């Protein structure tokens, strides 16, 4: 269905016809409303714009009326002041003023005018230098000093002119004398401003201002081009030296002083080559082209009133032209002066750089200074013609690298403080205080306030786990602080390798120059520093190793050598954990560690070995004999003293500190225990075999009875003492009388029983010997089981070493009387099973 064209419809009768259906009529109605809305919106927009234009036009008309009123007022006032009567009164007043002046000064108006002009010059010099006396003129710093120097030259001319006059009036003479006194101060002030302008370097001072300052100096001192350049170089050289001069009570040297001095050095080279000889000669020549009073800037100074006072100045002042030699310096002379100054300036710069770096010990600050200085020289140093920038670059590199190498050496050598701390601790060692350790499970001594986080709690927990008491912590914390510093040095050296030294400001260098500089600054210098760091670390660790070794040797035979060995082992462990990745220092402390482990093993095992030798190896009976099993009956568990020995060793190891028992340390104590146990056990075995060979049955019997009695007495000692103390005297008397009667009867019966005793004595002796032999065999069998179990805990020696335990086991087995290998295998199997069951009880020995 197509929509009707609204432009063809002129009346409603054309719509309500049979040509259009109802939906089409509705569409036409809707289109008409949309078009009406659009035209209404467009009309409102046009009316609004026209209204704003009308308002703007009205404002403009109002403003034009105000301006017209102001102009009419100004013209009216001007017309009133230019009337015939007003001008006539001014002319008559001026004539009266001139007559009055001639009457008071004898008619010499020119002298008074020059005196007034001289006084005005003295006031304007200071104002011009401050920037407030130039009026409406927008002058730069260079223009101001040139203008001030012209005013100063005018002052000199006026002083000379007035000085030639005779019979000056009193007021004029006073003004003249005062002006003469201030003239010298004004000159010094002007020269100081010129020097301040020349001393500055950077983006704030333009080269044109420097040129104008040199022209001002030439005007103020009547110097030629040669003297001006010489003064310029002297000022810049003194400024470089002053940048490094620091009084005792003043500020300290900073890196900004080095950058300022280097900027002065490079800016001087560039300024001299840019200004000398052509630009400076032209500028000095321009000062002589016109008379001084014809200068436009002087005429614009309202304070001088040259429009009034100029006609009262003589011809010498009005037509004075500065006389300055502008052609007394040629190119070769300027180059010679510049090269001479550059040589001395480089010495001052490098010397100041070294003095500034003397107080800088932070490696990062030194590298930042290195980056700033070298980048500044790379950017500006290559712009100077006739100078090889690589020479100065090498001098700066040499100074900075020398200090960096010295700082590296100093920082690395601080490792000797660890040895000093250890030596001081050993000198002031107090048993029970210095070696006191804090129990890991002592919760009361923990600082459990976690308000500031868990870092402190975790650090203390790790310190206890590693056995770090106060003495160990002092040395370890010192080493960690030193290690942190060395890590920072290594990081900075790596950063130097990644630096780029391209001249991004002026891309005027060829690729070969850039690559050569990159090789020097990012490869050669870092490699030199890295080699120095490695060699210093190797030497420092070697010295510390020798120091700790000598300290241990001096304490190895002392009474507390075991505690000292524990202290040194903990320090060596923590130091070795922080060793640098250098092949030469991997062996740090390893030479003395075996001796420390040996002393640690001796100290820890001394009490358990002594107890075992006194209690276990002197027993003659087997306490657990009724618990034996099998056929033949064999032990299935160790003797109580053997179990107690393992428990004592494990406890002593734990008390010494679990952190001490590395795999190597555990191996050392196991080897030591094997050797000590074998030696003591072999002595005990020889003692038993000797008694058996001598057939000392009575001694064995007594020893056995003594062993049983000792065991019983150990349990009932207190009870026996109470019973013995309760016997009374009457009972003792009765026993004495009974004993007397029994003795009499025994004498009578001896003769009768003698033949029977002779018959029964051999049988009793034989039974006693059999019992003792069996008891000895049982003891050896129990020893065989104990040795087999201890072998499980103390491990076997390495290949190629003699197994003393095995030989002892074979020797004892030979005297046990066991037949066949089955019994021995049963003992071996039983000891292995028992080891599996109880190995966790003795964790450090497992």
From TrEMBL:
Residues 694-704, 712-744 have a biased composition (Basic and acidic residues). InterPro entries: COG1 (IPR033370). It is found in: Golgi apparatus membrane. Signal peptide: none annotated. PANTHER family: CONSERVED OLIGOMERIC GOLGI COMPLEX SUBUNIT 1. This is Conserved oligomeric Golgi complex subunit 1. Residues 763-773 have a biased composition (Polar residues). One of its GO terms (biological process) is intra-Golgi vesicle-mediated transport.
């Amino acid at each position: 269905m197509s929509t009707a064209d609204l432009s063809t419809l002129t009346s409603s009768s054309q719509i309500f016809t049979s040509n259009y259906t109802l939906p089409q009529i509705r569409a036409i109605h809707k289109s008409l409303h949309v078009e009406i809305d659009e035209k209404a919106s467009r009309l409102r927009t046009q009316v609004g714009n026209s209204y704003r234009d009308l308002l703007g036009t009205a404002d403009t008309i109002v403003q034009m009326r105000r301006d017209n009123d102001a102009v009419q007022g100004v013209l009216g006032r001007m017309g009133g002041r230019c009337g015939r009567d007003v001008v006539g009164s001014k002319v008559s007043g001026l004539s009266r003023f001139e007559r009055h002046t001639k009457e008071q000064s004898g008619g010499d108006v020119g002298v008074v005018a020059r005196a007034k002009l001289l006084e005005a010059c003295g006031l304007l010099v200071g104002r011009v230098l401050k920037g407030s006396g130039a009026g409406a003129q927008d002058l730069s710093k260079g223009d101001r000093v040139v203008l001030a120097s012209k005013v100063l030259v005018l002052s000199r001319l006026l002083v000379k002119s007035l000085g030639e006059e005779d019979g000056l009036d009193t007021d004029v003479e006073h003004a003249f004398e005062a002006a003469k006194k201030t003239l010298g101060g004004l000159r010094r002030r002007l020269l100081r401003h010129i020097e301040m302008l020349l001393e500055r370097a950077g983006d704030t001072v333009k080269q044109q201002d420097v040129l104008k300052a040199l022209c001002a100096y030439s005007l103020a001192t009547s110097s030629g081009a040669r003297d001006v350049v010489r003064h310029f170089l002297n000022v810049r050289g003194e400024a470089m030296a002053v940048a490094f001069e620091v009084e005792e009570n003043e500020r300290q040297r900073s890196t900004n002083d080095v950058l300022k001095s280097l900027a002065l050095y490079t800016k001087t080279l560039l300024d001299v080559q840019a200004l000398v000889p052509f630009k400076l000669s032209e500028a000095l020549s321009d000062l002589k082209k016109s008379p001084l009073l014809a200068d436009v800037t002087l005429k614009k100074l309202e304070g001088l009133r040259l429009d009034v006072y100029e006609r009262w100045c003589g011809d010498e002042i009005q037509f004075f032209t500065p006389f300055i030699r502008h052609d007394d310096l040629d190119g070769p002379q300027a180059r010679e002066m510049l090269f001479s100054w550059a040589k001395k300036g480089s010495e001052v710069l490098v010397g100041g750089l070294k003095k500034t770096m003397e107080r800088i010990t932070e490696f990062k600050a030194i590298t930042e200074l290195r980056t700033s200085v070298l980048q500044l020289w790379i950017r500006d140093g290559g712009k100077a013609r006739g100078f090889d920038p690589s020479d100065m670059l090498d001098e700066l590199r040499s100074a900075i690298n020398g200090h960096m190498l010295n700082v590296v050496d100093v920082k690395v050598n601080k490792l000797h403080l660890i040895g000093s701390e250890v030596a001081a601790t050993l000198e002031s060692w107090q048993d029970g205080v210095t070696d006191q350790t804090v129990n890991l499970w002592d919760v009361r001594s923990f600082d459990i306030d976690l308000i500031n986080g868990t870092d402190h709690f975790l650090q203390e927990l790790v310190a206890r786990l590693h056995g770090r008491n106060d003495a160990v912590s002092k040395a370890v914390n010192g080493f960690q602080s030193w290690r942190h510093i060395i890590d920072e040095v290594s990081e900075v050296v790596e950063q130097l390798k990644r630096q780029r030294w391209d001249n991004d400001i002026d891309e005027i260098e060829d690729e070969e120059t850039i690559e050569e500089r990159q090789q020097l600054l990012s490869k050669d210098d870092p490699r030199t520093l890295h080699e120095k760091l490695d060699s210093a670390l190797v030497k420092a660790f070697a010295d510390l190793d020798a120091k700790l070794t000598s300290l241990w040797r001096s304490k190895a035979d002392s009474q507390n050598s075991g505690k000292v060995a524990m202290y040194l082992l903990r320090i060596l462990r923590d130091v070795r954990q922080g060793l640098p990745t250098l092949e030469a220092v991997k062996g740090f402390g390893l030479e003395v560690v075996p001796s420390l482990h040996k002393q640690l093993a001796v100290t820890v095992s001394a009490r358990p070995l002594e107890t075992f030798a006194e209690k276990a190896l002197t027993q003659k009976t087997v306490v657990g004999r009724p618990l034996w099993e099998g056929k033949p009956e064999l032990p299935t568990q160790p003797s109580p003293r053997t179990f107690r020995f393992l428990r004592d060793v494990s406890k002593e190891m734990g008390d010494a500190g679990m952190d001490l028992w590395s795999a190597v340390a555990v191996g050392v104590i196991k080897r030591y225990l094997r050797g000590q146990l074998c030696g003591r056990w072999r002595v005990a075995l020889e003692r038993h075999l000797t008694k058996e060979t001598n057939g000392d049955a009575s001694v064995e019997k007594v020893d056995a009875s003594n062993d049983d009695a000792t065991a019983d007495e150990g349990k009932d000692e207190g009870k026996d003492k109470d019973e013995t103390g309760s016997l009374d005297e009457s009972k003792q008397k009765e026993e004495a009388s009974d004993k007397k009667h029994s003795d009499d009867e025994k004498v009578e019966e001896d003769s009768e029983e003698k033949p029977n005793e002779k018959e029964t004595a051999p049988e009793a002796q034989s039974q006693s010997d059999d019992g003792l032999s069996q008891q000895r065999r049982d003891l050896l069998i129990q020893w065989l089981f104990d040795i087999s179990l201890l072998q499980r805990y103390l491990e076997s020696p390495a290949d190629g070493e003699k197994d003393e335990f095995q030989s002892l086991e074979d020797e004892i087995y030979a005297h046990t009387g066991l037949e066949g290998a089955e019994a021995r295998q049963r003992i071996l199997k039983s000891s292995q099973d028992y080891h599996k069951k109880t190995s966790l009880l003795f964790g450090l020995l497992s």
